[in-house]
Amino acid sequence: MTGTFLGADAGYENRWEAEKIALELHDTALTTARTVVVHDVDGHFAMSFLLPVPPSDAVVTSLVEQGFGVAVRGASSGRLVGPEALRAGASAAAEAHQYRREGRALRFQGQRSLRGRHGVSDILAFTAIEAVLPRGTHTVDTRGNLTPFFRDGKLVLVVD
């Protein structure tokens, strides 16, 4: 997957709070993010964003001023700034997103088209979701809110 991965860590101990802040950042400073993910990093929660282009210096500076450790991982460059205690979490979140190891996706490509009941084949064809579990599931009632997660290099949706 091409793009730039931005990890941000402010040491959130509550997943809900981290998810709320990640969505706020997406709605304000990181509006071009194609994927927004929250990660469990060493007992707390950090976030990551897949951006089509590297963030501006102003965006990175703003995040640092808000108390975030920030890691930017691109194809040819990297950057690690902010409070030293939070840099490792930011880096771990960006890396987990880049290699699709772990994390819960709050925003992903094709998500807005998922309202109501959809066939698994349509979900796989028209969104960034790459697998639906349990295997053999034929339709999914999205209830307007799907939160797939990364597992083994894929974005996976688990349905009840």
From TrEMBL:
- Full protein name: Uncharacterized protein
- Originating organism: Lentzea xinjiangensis
